[in-house]
Amino acid sequence: MTNYPFNVWAFLAGLGIFLLGMIMVEAALTTLGGRPFKKFLRKYTNHPIKAILSGTIVTAVLQSSSVVSLMVLALVGAGIIELYNALGIILGSNLGTTFTGWIVAYFGFKFDIESFALPFIAIGALVMAFFPGKEKLYNIGNLLGGFGFLFLGLEYMKSSIELLAQNFDLAPFIAYGPYLLFFVGFILTAVIQSSSAVMVIALSALNAGVIPLESAAAMVIGSDLGTTITVIFGGLKGTPAKKRVALGQFLFNLIVDILALAFLYPLLRLVTKVYGLSDPLMALVAFHSTFNIMGILLFLPFLKLFSRFLNKRFAKEEQQVAYFINNVPSNVPEIAIESLRKEIQHLIERVFLLQVSILEIEPQIFNYRLNTFLRAESKRSSIVQYEKIKELEGELVEFYVNIQNEQLERDDSIRLKQLILAIRYAMNAAKGVKDVSHNVNRELYNSNKGLVLAIKELLLEGDRAGDFDVLSEVA
After folding, report:
1. Which residue, among 106, 35, 94, 86, has the nearest Cα to 59 in the 3D structure?
2. Whole-Å CA distances, 269 to 257, 283, 287, 348
3. What is the DSSP string of 454-474?
4. Which DSSP letter does residue 15 get?
5. 150/23 Cα distance (integer angstroms)
6. Which of 292, 240, 249, 299 has the alpha carbon at shortest distance from 271?
7. Which of 141, 149, 219, 385 is paired with 23 by a 20 to 30 Å CA distance?
8. Distances (CA, A) of 420 to 30, 331, 398, 416, 423
């Protein structure tokens, strides 16, 4: 080890322990609060400012913008939240992830980290060892141990980089200017999948005097862009809706990070001179929060326009039978059941179109609004429509079985039984009208105009009474 200017293995071990702590904290918080967090995101996203605040809060608690972004991907893919609201959560998550930097900068370099970390690890490990069968206690232990590992990993990285500052001259690298560190931050984050870990590395290097503030700031900007790689991978093979969310986050981060890099020195002067922050560690995390807040303020007035732009992307991939259950994880029951409900709504819409098609009734006579794709489907022959309905039924039943195999709460189990009944009733209606389709022809219409007109009037009355509000019916 004497040939190295600093203890490489101590640094890598510290990084590994820090990442292990992040994984433990994320897993524990997702298990303990995953369901409430998802309900929170669903409930408080009906306005862009609410969505931004929700994304900020949940990310600050979960300590990971990647986890929240992947959660948003699942919610959008399931059709639970709209793209417009999802973008607000994404904007907020970028700000929420800066919370980790504030904690580390304030506590991690001002206290004896080892004495702070060891009690957390000890208590957490003992709780996990003695209560392996009690899920809640086990996850609390996991959470405590995770926080302990976060700070212990920080201690190893900090001490090894301090040794580097004493034995290695980085002047030739710094001579290239801070912008080289932008690419270092991007690559590191893309590889280790954690912008928080890269922020800690930047803080440790800054604390040890290895790099100046402007280089550390450029590194943090790079990590901000690198964190989008996780979501891009998550949306790559997903539905068009998921791809739009991933593209939205990438474009947002790219534009904001380019602007932050272009105005690097004015922003740093704002933080050090206007804010009056002389401590470089606090200045760095304030810089990170500042350019994310400015990015939110920049995008907020154009959020609707931005969502319309994204909605036009990947349009050709919409030509598929199922809309909402594609690539939705069945092991997250609250999301899976909601996506199943919305897919059954889609099934009922197709059955309705089949009925009006066979009865030769134009769907335009109803107040019922059809999306563009279903309006095109209504022009197909009744045979093709019925085959598509059967195909969708198969996908729904398969998805239903996958959810049934998960551990469900009583309310979820009851709701799932109601939804499978809705599928059965919809298919009975489709089969019934198909079986009599050969009798419903122009000759029948000409000889029984009164009967057909009565059927139309009955359907119209049902529409006026709201009987075709399939969303409320299935809910």
Report:
1. 94
2. 17, 10, 10, 60
3. HHHHHHHHHHHTTTT-HHHHH
4. H
5. 10
6. 292
7. 219
8. 29, 18, 11, 6, 5
Cα–Cα nearest to 222, from 248, 201, 244: 201
Structure tokens at 224: 């901000």
How far CA 251 is from CA of 192, 229, 284, 307, 418, in Å, comes to 21, 12, 24, 12, 41
Structure token pair of residue 48: 């862009």
- For residues 387 and 377, give the distance between their C-alpha atoms in angstroms, rounded to a whole number: 12
The predicted pLDDT at position 471 comes to 38
For residues 340 and 399, give the distance between their C-alpha atoms in angstroms, rounded to a whole number.
Answer: 8
Q: Tokens for 245, please give them.
A: 């969310």
Rounded to whole angstroms, the maximal C-alpha distance in the chain is 100
Instruction: Give the per-residue pLDDT at 470.
Output: 41
CA distance 157 to 81: 40
- With tokens 């003695």, the residue in question is 130
The count of residues in the chain is 475
Burial 15-39 (b: 16+ CB within 10 A, else e): bebbbbbbebbbbbbbebbbeebbe
b/e map 97-106, b = 16+ CB within 10 Å: bbbbbbbbbe
Residues 6+ apart with CB under 8 A from 29: 61, 62, 63, 143
Q: What is the mean pLDDT of each run of 10 residues along the chain (475 residues)?
A: 58 80 72 63 75 85 71 71 85 87 78 73 90 83 83 74 56 72 86 77 83 91 87 70 85 94 94 92 94 93 89 65 73 78 86 78 54 59 81 84 79 86 87 69 52 55 48 42
DSSP notation for 215-284: HHHHHHHHHHHHTHHHHHHHHHTS-HHHHHHHHHHHHHHHHHHHHHHHTHHHHHHIIIIIS---SHHHHH
The gap from C-alpha 383 to its chain's centroid, in whole angstroms, comes to 39
Q: How far apart are CA 345 and CA 53, in angstroms?
A: 31
Half-sphere exposure of 217 (CA within 13 A, CB side): 29
Q: Which of 57, 61, 63, 56 is nearest to 23 (CA)?
A: 63
Half-sphere exposure of 246 (CA within 13 A, CB side): 21
Determine the pLDDT at residue 334.
74
- Which residue ranges does the chain devote to CATH 1.20.58? 333-474
SS3 content of the chain, % helix, strand, coil (to 5): 80, 0, 20
Two structure tokens written together for 87: 């973008």
At 166, list the tokens.
């004493």
